[in-house]
Design goal:
The protein is α+β, with helices and mostly antiparallel strands and 165 residues long. It has two domains: 30 residues; 115 residues, Immunoglobulin-like, CATH 2.60.40. 16% of the residues lie in helices and 33% in strands. The protein contains one helix and eight strands, in the order H-E-E-E-E-E-E-E-E. Strands 4-1-7-8 form a four-stranded mixed beta sheet, with no helix packed on it. Strands 3-2-5-6 form a four-stranded antiparallel beta sheet, with no helix packed on it. A hairpin with a 2-residue loop joins strand 2 and strand 3. The relative contact order is 0.16. The mean pLDDT is 79.
């Protein structure tokens, strides 16, 4: 025996209030619209980035066969050298974020003896965006800078005995 066709307004669940169902649909619909708008808004507010050249400086007595900054690779650096080979490119936020860090790695021939550091990035402005400089210092530490200057320039951020290759 076929079931009788019932118009949608005749369908009722025992004990349900049609006003309550209607409000639930309105609230659910508004919530869905709000979630979509939030997703769109956060997509539009995505952080602006810029690409800068990556350059390394080796202030140590040992060879560095390669290095990387957040997976962007840099070239071989002989002892007490650097600044001559720029690698394209590393992507950084256009606007500095307090507490910003990068992961710097260096390795020997064949990728052996990998050493990694988490290095704080000092504040910078978009106008400073000539390159991302990585300094492997004699004391075993690493410093990084976003700068438009070369190592010899008086406004270069690394100064004093550390700056000597």
């Amino acid at each position: 025996m076929p079931y009788p066709l019932i118009a949608p307004r005749q369908m009722r669940v025992a004990g349900s209030d049609s006003r309550h169902s209607y409000s639930a649909w309105i609230i659910g619909g508004c919530t869905a619209v709000l979630l979509v708008l939030c997703a769109l808004l956060f997509g539009c507010l995505e952080e602006e980035t810029m690409s800068v050249s990556l350059v390394g400086y080796n202030h140590t007595d040992t060879e560095i066969y390669g290095f990387s900054v957040d997976k962007s690779g840099g070239p071989y650096l002989s002892p007490h050298s650097g600044g001559g080979n720029f690698t394209c490119c590393i992507t950084i936020p256009k606007k500095y974020r307090p507490g910003m860090t990068v992961k710097v790695s260096r390795f020997d021939f064949g990728g052996e003896n990998r050493v990694e550091w988490i290095v704080s990035v000092p504040p910078y402005q978009p106008r400073d965006s000539g390159g991302f400089s990585v300094h492997f210092l004699r004391d075993g530490s690493v410093k990084v800078f976003v700068t438009r200057y070369e190592l010899w320039h008086p406004d270069y951020p690394l100064k004093g005995p550390e700056a000597v290759k």
